[in-house]
Amino acid sequence: MEATTRIRRFTGIDRFTHIFLIITFMMLAFTGAAQAFYETSWGLQLVWLMGGYQQVKSIHIITGWAMTIGFLIHIVITLSRINWRHPWHSLFGPDSLIPTWRDFKEFGQRLMWFTGLGKAPLFDRWTYLEKFDYWAVFWGIPLLFITGIMLIYPVNTSYLLPGWTLNVAILLHRAEAVLAVVYIIVIHLLFGHFRRSTFPLNDAMFSGSVPVGHLEDEKHNWVARLRDEGRLATLVVATPAIWFRLLYFVFAYAIIILGVYLILSALPYSNLLHG
Amino acid sequence: MRLSRVVYPLLVGLGLLPAPPAVFAQHGMVPPDIYADAAISRYRNQRLSSAYYDPSDQVPQLLFGPAPQLGSALTPKLDAHIGTKGYIKRRCTSCHETAIANSHNKKSNITCRQCHGSQTISSNDHYFSPMNPIRRHAYVCAKCHEGASASFATYVVHQNREITPDTRQTFPALYWSHVLMLALIVGVMLVFLPHGIAWWIREWFVKHRDSED
To answer: What is the ipTM of this complex?
Structure first.
């Protein structure tokens, strides 16, 4: 098998879910920033661009609902992928995103590799960082959803909980959003795409496939396991068409530029993020 | 006394009985005038919720009279601004500088007076203050937030900064939520920022077999 042969890594549903998540995330980030920085000239520009404060709020709420519904559908799809005949292997095996002891070991190995004291870890299908990315979003969305619902319906919330929990809800919603935006843009986008092995674009999630030569370096144990099980050849897919590559290249760079713009613009006003 | 002096007014009164009241207002709305002090009559009206018109609503006493001094009939509890020099000519924010930084003002342009009321501004625990927790949800919050309950009114509009010793005492849930989230953000960044930089540098010195990109 040639090094440039591409192996399927993500299904169509995975890729669509990711694109959906990118779009809703960026819309929520921008409409959220417009509300958080409303009193600054930059915030007012964002508000103006999106048709006024009330409209910004409406877009934020509708997009939040869309993200939550997408999240619920994702959970249903994920549960349906579990092999219930062998639940243990399915949940804690190498194809699962659930963290195991091996992830901590590989994290340690990689720290050693950074300092030149050890060999690079031979990852299986998912690295510890990919698992961390996944679970950060997985717990972030319910937190943002619950606090968001509290803030959309403050009066009804106060029938169930004391009214001062709304102060806490605002804080949690904002802090979690700041964490998500900073993490996604700095760690996930910049370090994800601009390392030597990935520059100019880590296109696995857009094309759904990765050259096997690349995988030999990045996920050595996964390729070895697929080869042993004789499944490697069944996962071979065609190289994506040039127009498709161009499309996702432009899309990905638009998102990266928007994200960096968001962080750099918000940075001078970050003291306003206190209540 | 001549009989006509009694009979004629009685007859006139009887004739007027079926007539509609001279002022179209609610029944029994004129309260006993036990709070005659014009400075608090506003609160009396609110307490009875009668829509009762009182000229002192329109003409606050303080605008025309001398500023009340300590030791007068007014107390700081009744008038929180008692003895404030130049009170009439000052704006709320000239003393309450940080109070303006709240989302009600920033996002809905709500002014101080729209919640705290016009003259006289009493202490929150004064019985007749609209900001008294026994009624503020109905008299203040519910003006905009339809259905606001006493629970709703415990939302802190003038919230302190989260990480202060004062907040730790008065609003521990907010304080510790902030500590928790701050620790989470700083912790994640302290791990993954150096991790990313180290990764970036290390890869710079590695030759990849990947030949396509």
So the answer is: 0.91
Torsion angles phi and psi, residue A14, rounded to 5: -60, -45
Are the beta carbons of B173 and A176 separated by less than 8 Å?
no
**Per-domain boundaries in chain B:** 34-159, 163-213
For residue A238, CA distances in Å to A211, A250, B64, B158 come to: 10, 21, 87, 60
- Tell me the two tokens of residue A240: 């994506």
Domains along chain A with CATH numbers: 6-273 (1.20.950.20)
pLDDT tens digits for B13-57? 888 887 766 555 455 445 445 444 444 444 444 443 333 433 443
- Say if the Cβ atoms of B196 and A39 lie within 8 Å: no
Residues B131, B124: contact at Cβ < 8 Å? yes
- A-chain residues near B203 (CB < 8 A): 195-197
Task: Check A190 against B106: CB less than 8 A apart.
Answer: no
Which contiguous run of DSSP H or E holds residue A248? Answer: helix A242-266
Nearest neighbour of B210 by CB, restricted to A162, A176, A214: A214
Residue-level pLDDT at B132: 81
Contact A155 B145 (CB under 8 A): yes
Highest average pLDDT, of A2-11, A60-69, A87-96, A217-226, comes from A60-69
pLDDT-derived band of residue A31, with 50, 70 and 90 as boundaries? very high
Eight-class DSSP state of A270: G
Does residue A3 contact residue B212 with C-beta atoms inside 8 Å? Answer: yes
